[in-house]
Each structure stands twice: as C-alpha cells, then as structure tokens.
C-alpha cells in the first residue's frame, strides 16, 4: 500500500509540474491553468505527512511545549487544539494570521486548550516555492528525479515568535543545512534534534 500511495503522489506532482513546464498560452475546456497548477501543487506538498526524521524542533519551542503539555509536539499541527495538563497556569503569547505581535497574551490554565498555530509554527525549512522551482528545473521528469526533490522537504517546529523574526521567508537556498546553520542561527533559532556542523558553512 505504501508504494502505491507513493507512486500516486509522484504521478500527481509530475502532472502539475508538466503543466508548469509547458509554454501554454490558451487552455481547452476542463484543463488547469498554470496559476491553478502551481497553487494545487503547493498545497499538495504542504499537506504531506513527512517521515519523522524530517521534522525538527527548536529548543525554545520544545521547552515551552514540555512545560505546558504531556502531548507529543510531533503529533500536533496547525489547527489542532493542545491541552494544557502540566502547569497550573502560564502566560502565553498567541498570534493570529500574519500579525507580527501577539494579539493576546493571557494565562492558560491546567485543563484548558489553545490552538497550536496561535503559539507554534511549522516552518518549511526549504520553502515550498523553492521546492517547486527545483521541480520545474528537472530535465528528465520521472519518479526518481521527483522523489529526490520531495525528500528535501523538512519542517521545523518553532515558536510563532521565532518565526516572526525571520526575514528570509521565501528567498532561501536549496540547502537545508545552510538554512539551519546560517539563517536560523542568525535569529537565535537553535534546533534540538539537529547535528550541527563543527565548522560554520560559508
């Protein structure tokens, strides 16, 4: 079953990428235009459940999470509710949409819930827009070449406040190590489950 699902995913990605690679100027009925294809491809890649080794967590996010709840941070995403069950009460800044500052800072109490995305953020280390650009560059578009690119997708679970510090949202290198070692470190975002290089990447 796993191989069938993987093959189906690769076929979907190839379908959308082929639309993006063609110099189409007009469309037949019931076809998808380039803008729609890019959007749907992006949403498909963003919704992927990745292997557990492709998820990282920042030290700050891990500390707050473990202070608040006994749940597993790697099992929570986006609109999930997180139950506070390890602390009587704690001040937590909560964000809404793309706001740069918390829209409320309030006490969360034992037994209460808060929305994951209000406090934590799942950051695609290599932005999906960069992943799509790399897929479009593939000359020999096949399962193996597409799989190589998809395997580069990784997510860092961080505090919403950490995400708000990062200025390089979309313009990042197609290199996970450089993003973590240079961009994240520049903003004081250090990861718990990542093996840092002994020497700084130039």
Provide a concise account of the structure shown.
Helices cover 40% and strands 15% of the residues.
Low-confidence stretches: none
Gap between N and C termini, in Å? 43 Å
Oligomer: single chain
Contiguous helical run count: 8
| Structural class by sheet pairing and helices | alpha+beta
What profile does the largest beta sheet have? 3 strands, mixed
**What is the helical fraction, as a range of percent?**
25-40%
- What's the number of extended β-strand segments? 7
Q: Which sequence of strands runs across the widest sheet?
A: 1-7-6
**Overall spatial form:** elongated
The sequence of SSEs as H and E is HHEHEEEEHEHHEHH
Amount of beta strand? 15-25%
Radius of gyration: 19 Å
Mean pLDDT: 91
Please characterize this protein's 3D structure.
The protein is α+β, with helices and mostly antiparallel strands. The protein is built from 8 helices and 7 strands, in the order ααβαββββαβααβαα. It has helices spanning 2-21, 34-46, 59-68, 116-119, 128-137, 143-150, 160-163, 176-186, and strands at 55-57, 81-83, 89-94, 104-109, 113-115, 120-124, 155-159. The protein has a 3-stranded mixed beta sheet with strand order 1-7-6. A two-stranded antiparallel sheet has the order 2-5. α1 (2-21) runs antiparallel to α2. The longest helix is centred in the first third of the chain and has 20 residues, at 2-21. It is elongated. 19% of the residues are buried.
